[in-house]
Structures are given as structure tokens and as C-alpha cells.
Amino acid sequence: MYEIAGLGHKTALERTEAMLRKVQIADPGRVMDRYPHQLSGGMAQRAVIAMALAASPSLLILDEPTTALDATVEAEVLDLVAALRREFDTSVLFISHNLAVIAKMCDRVGVLYAGELVEEGPARQVFDDPRHPYTVGLLRCIPRRGQRKDRDRLDTIPGFLPAPGHSLSGCVFAPRCALVQDRCRSESPPFFDVGDLRTARCFYHEQAPELPRATPSSVPALATDGIGGPLVEVEGLSKTFAGGVQALAGVDLAVHRGETLGLVGESGSGKTTLARVLLGLTAPDQGSVVTLEGKPLNADARRRPREILRALQIVFQNPDSALNRRHTVRSLISRPLTRLAGLSGTALRDRLEELIASVRLEDRHLALRPGQLSGGLKQRVAIARAFGARPDVVVCDEPTSALDVSVQAAILNLLADLQQQEHATYLFISHDLGLVRYLSDRIVVLYLGRVMEVGPAETVFTGPHHPYTEALFSAVPSLDGQRPDRIRLQGEIPSAADPPGGCVFHTRCPRRLSTGICESTEPPLLEEEPGHLIRCHIPITELRQLQLNEPAPSQGGSA
Ligand SMILES: Nc1ncnc2c1ncn2[C@@H]1O[C@H](COP(=O)(O)OP(=O)(O)O)[C@@H](O)[C@H]1O
Ligand code: SF4
Ligand code: SF4
Ligand SMILES: [Mg+2]
Fold first, then answer.
1. pLDDT higher than threshold 50 for residue 373
2. Which of 41-50, 216-225, 395-404 has the highest mean pLDDT?
3. What's the CATH code of the domain at 429?
């Protein structure tokens, strides 16, 4: 960038190093010689921001700059953007589908639908009191204000975005709008002034806050008997990959019948490896014990009896990996019904119909192949497949992270309904803590392959929490206002090939003790309250005091 701007090679290199320092890349001199694939996601994003700033722009456009990052790294990148914006006095156009990130970063927000700006105004006001039916609908798709699966269902937005190039007369949102009137179909609404420097492009913006729900909020009656005893248990579960990468290090946990166990932790903490071990797709180290209803599971799925294959199913983040592109939706959903549940004839047809209705697919989808379906529809097929043979446990590994919020809401509702009706048990993995809170009964927090905390969902969320959990939660921006005492983790998760000694979290822990014990001794995972286990040298009573009274120092170490 600097050479393009006409600077000599040497000056350009100096400026580059200075700019990398400004975007807080550690050791910029060495980083300069690396290739992009040798950088972590957070570092690569800093390097790109440095490139953009090198041209001294008066407007910096950030297009989903943190979408692929963990909440902890996202928080650091967002802090950086805010600081650079002040320092360089640059205007920022921040594009994101994450409404909470927009709420945190932006003064004003514009809501775009099908290529048209439908609402605009100060971010806080728009999110607290939206005036366009599309904005109202979007905000209702996201679990917030303590919503939980046992009390509420999320709202959804019916229908789909119009195909690009499809021209509509009248309001672009009319085909999906519950407030639509004849006028909306023929006349395109202008921008209405809705006060406070706000505009909304809707004839009926005054009624927008009362938009009727597309999905009832009521929860179906519990068809079964709540949460039972342990169904899947792992003991001393370790997994070491080639090169000494210890993805899991002695994990003990149980998933109870009928519950959702939420599994959280930054990328690289071992979540997917744990899921793959349960499914028999990755063999654990010698000595690890994995049981289903007390019976040991073969480490290799190909050697597991059909009954076990039926009992344990997975929904992956990317449905493509589970769906053979050559098969139709009908055959994709039917196969596990014949092979695992032994259905045929009318029983097969009935179950197929029941399944496609419950995942809200339509008959016309049955003849299509995966290539003809949107991401949301493919994920519904994958869910129908996973649930077809009435599994006992479904592992969901980031099942909605590739989907937009409306489809995500429909899928979360579906998972919650299926659990209520069929007594399904879930291990729900997600980096989105809002989703985990909505869906989980209990939560496990994983860091570098170790369980740092486990407990009932609301207990873990409200605290006292493990210092790592505290940092994870405070990194997540919220739509309902930011928490004032945010603490920051420094840097990124250390390599699993060379984990720190003592407490593995000590290199980043904002509450590390000054006595040296954190560096020397690994704390045990102790039950501090009934069902609530924490792995930390600080006793829970002290954690409670610390977390109530003082924000943790933002640098590691409290000495
Ligand atoms: N097949 C593999 N070979 C070598 N290392 C792996 C493999 N799969 C995962 N890992 C490593 O194991 C650790 C945990 O990864 P993973 O289970 O994917 O974490 P998460 O799902 O929490 O992001 C990471 O350090 C990752 O690089
Ligand atoms: S103009 Fe009509 S269709 Fe468009 S958003 Fe408003 S009420 Fe709905
Ligand atoms: S043991 Fe020490 S380093 Fe580990 S989480 Fe607790 S305070 Fe932090
Ligand atoms: Mg993963």
C-alpha cells in the first residue's frame, strides 16, 4: 500500500511495521515476513485493517470484519476499530448481520432488505423501538432478555428473500409482512419521518411494534417426563493428534436423558473433537471411556452395531458434509429410516411425512437434490435425517452458524419442540452464547481440552463463574445494553501442542493469583455448589466477591 502511494521500499517497510504496531500485532517485525495462511484469524484481520488504514482513508468500510472470529478475539478487534476510529478520525461504515455488534459499535444504523434501505436512525433507538416490520421481525428472531426454551418460542419471519433481479411493484417486504394491505402491493412506500432523526419506509410504521407473530410464543405441552439419569458418559477422555496436539485432556462429563448440554469454548478448545469421538469418527487415546447407557461404545463408528448408530446422531455446522449430492431429499431422509429404523411400506411413508412436516419442508422439496436447496433448507434435511430413526442423543455442532437469524430461529424452535415431544437429548455446541443460554439446561465450558466449569445453565450464566467463563461472557456484545465491567482476555488460545503448565488458563487469566500457584499447580475440578463445578484455585465465595465488586484488571495477573 505504501509503495503504491509512492514511498520508497525502505520507508514503506518502516511505515508498515509502525502500522502493524498500531493495530496491536505482537512482534510486527517477525509477522511481516509471514504469509497470510501462517496468521491466526484475529491477526489476519488486524493485518487487513492495517492495509486499509495505510491509505489514510476518510471512510473505512468494514464488511462483516469479525464474523469468522471467536467472541474474545472479536471483542479485541472491535476495541481496536473503535480506538483507531478516534485516532485517525475516520468515518466507519460497519456492515454486519450481528445486531449486537452493530449496537455496540455504531451511532446510526440502516436496515437493508432486498437491496432497499427500509429503516434508518440512531442505533440504540432503532433496536429498542423498531418501526419497520422487517426490523421488528429480525429482532424477535434473536433470543434475548432471558428467553428460554422452556418458556418461549422465538418468532420467525415467514417466507424468503426475493430472488435477486426479481422486481416487485410496491413494498419489497410485502410478500412476508403480516401488516400488508392492498396499498402496499401497488405503491412503493416513501421514507416516513418517525421522529428523533429516524425514518422508516412503511405506510403502517405506527403499527409496526404490534406486528403479529409468525410463530406462537407458547411452548407445546411436555409429552415426556423431563430430565433423567446419565445417558452418555465420558471418563478420562483424551485425544492426542499427531505432533502431540492434545485436543482433549482427561474430560469427564455426563449427558443426561432429555437434557440439552451446551458446550462452549473458543475455537481450538476441543469441542468438535469431543463430538467426533462420541460419534465414533475420531478414536480417543487409550484409557478413555465412552459409554451409552452404561455400555462402552466402540471407538470406530463402522464397528458399532446398527442400534448404536440409530441411537447417536449428529448435525454438523455445514450440512453439505452430511448430504450426498447425488441423492434426492426423499432418499436422503428415507435411508436412515430403512437402514436404521427398519421401516418400509406405509410405516416408512408415514414417518417421512411426519418428519418433513416437523422440519417444515414441503412435498415439492422431496424430488430436489442438495444442490437445488438453500443453506437453511439443506440444514432442515440434515436435521430430518438425524431425527428420522428417533435417536436417543443428537450432537449439534454449530448447527445454525451458517444460517440467517430467521432460519436459525426456526431451527432452534424445532430442536426445542422435538426435545419436548420426543424426549431427545442434545449436546449443543455453539460459539453463540445467546443460543446456548436459550437452549441449554446445563453448560460445560471447555478450554484447551479441559473442562473448566460445568453447571446448570442459569447458574453458570449468572455466576459466580470461572474466570475463563467470566471473560467469555463479557466479550459478547449484547443487544440489551453493554455490561459496564467488561474484562478482556489478552491474545489468543495457546497451542494445544504445548499447553501452559499449572492452570492451563494462567497465561491469559485476568484474575491470576500473585502467589505463583496458578503457574505451578493445576487446580482440580471441584463441586462448589450442588451440580456446579469449577476448576480454579480461587474458592467460589471469593470469586463471587471479586465478580460482584471489582472489574478484573484487563492485563493478566493481579499482582
Ligand atoms: N485431525 C486433526 N489433526 C490434528 N489436529 C487436530 C485435528 N482436529 C483438531 N485438531 C486440533 O485439536 C484442537 C481442538 O480442535 P477442535 O476440536 O476442532 O476445536 P473446536 O471445535 O473447539 O474449535 C485444535 O488445536 C485443533 O487444531
Ligand atoms: S408498507 Fe405495507 S407491506 Fe411494506 S412493511 Fe409496511 S405494512 Fe408491510
Ligand atoms: S487457577 Fe489461577 S490462572 Fe487458573 S483460572 Fe483460577 S485464578 Fe485464573
Ligand atoms: Mg468446532
1. yes
2. 395-404
3. 3.40.50.300
Return the sign of the alpha-carbon dihedral for residues 390, 392, 395, 400. positive
Q: Whole-angstrom Cα distance, residue 414 to residue 2?
A: 52
- 109 DSSP β-pair partners: 121
Domain extent at residue 250: 230-446
Instruction: Give the other-Cβ count within 10 Å of 29's Cβ.
Output: 10
Listed residues 446, 481, 507: the one ending a domain: 446
Gap between the terminal Cα atoms of the chain: 42
195, 327: one domain: no
Q: Measured between alpha carbons, how far is 458 from 547 in angstroms, rounded to an integer? A: 16
Say if ligand 1 is within 6 A of residue 430 CB.
Answer: no
Report whether residue 241 contacts ligand 1, using a CB cutoff of 6 Å: yes
What single-letter amino acid sits at 239? K
Q: What is the dihedral of CA 304, 305, 309, 310, to 10 degrees?
A: -170
How is residue 508 written as a grid cell? 491469559
- Regarding whether 432 and 342 lie in a shared domain, the answer is yes
C-alpha cell at position 96: 454486519
On whether residue 220 sits in a domain, the answer given is no
Please report which ligand is nearest the Cα atom of 185: 2
Q: Are residues 160 and 58 in the same domain?
A: no
In the predicted structure, residue 556 carries a pLDDT above the cut 60: no
What is the pLDDT, as a whole number, of residue 558?
37
| Integer Cα distance of 544 and 559 in angstroms | 19
Say how many Å lie between the CA of residue 355 and the centre of ligand 2: 34
Ligand nearest to the CA of 399: 4
Residue 217 lies in a domain: no
pLDDT computed for residue 519 by the predictor: 97
User: Which class for 81: exposed (0-12), middle (13-18), buried (19 or more C-beta within 10 A)?
Assistant: buried
Residue where a domain stops, chosen among 96, 119, 140: 96
Please name which of 110, 38, 100 lies closest in space to residue 75, comparing C-alpha atoms: 100
What residue's CA is closest to ligand 1, atom 16? 270
Confidence label for 484 from pLDDT (cuts 50, 70 and 90): low
8 Å CB contact between 53 and 88: yes
3 state SS for 189-226: CCCEEEECCEEECCCCCCCHHHCCCCCCCCCCCCCCCC
CB 523 less than 6 A from any atom of ligand 3:
yes
The C-alpha angle with vertex 153 and arms to 147 and 156, in degrees rounded to 5, equals 110
Instruction: Report the domain count for the chain.
Output: 4
Q: Please report which ligand is nearest the Cα atom of 268.
A: 1
Q: Residue 250 falls within a domain, yes or no?
A: yes
Round to whole Å and give the CA distance between 157 and 135: 10
Ligand 3, atom 6: nearest CA belongs to which residue? Answer: 536
Contact, 460 vs 452, CB < 8 A? no
Cell 405503491, residue? 187
Q: Is the CB of 265 under 6 A from ligand 1?
A: yes
- Ligand 2 neighbours (beta carbon < 6 A): 133, 171, 173-174, 177, 179-180, 184, 189, 202-204
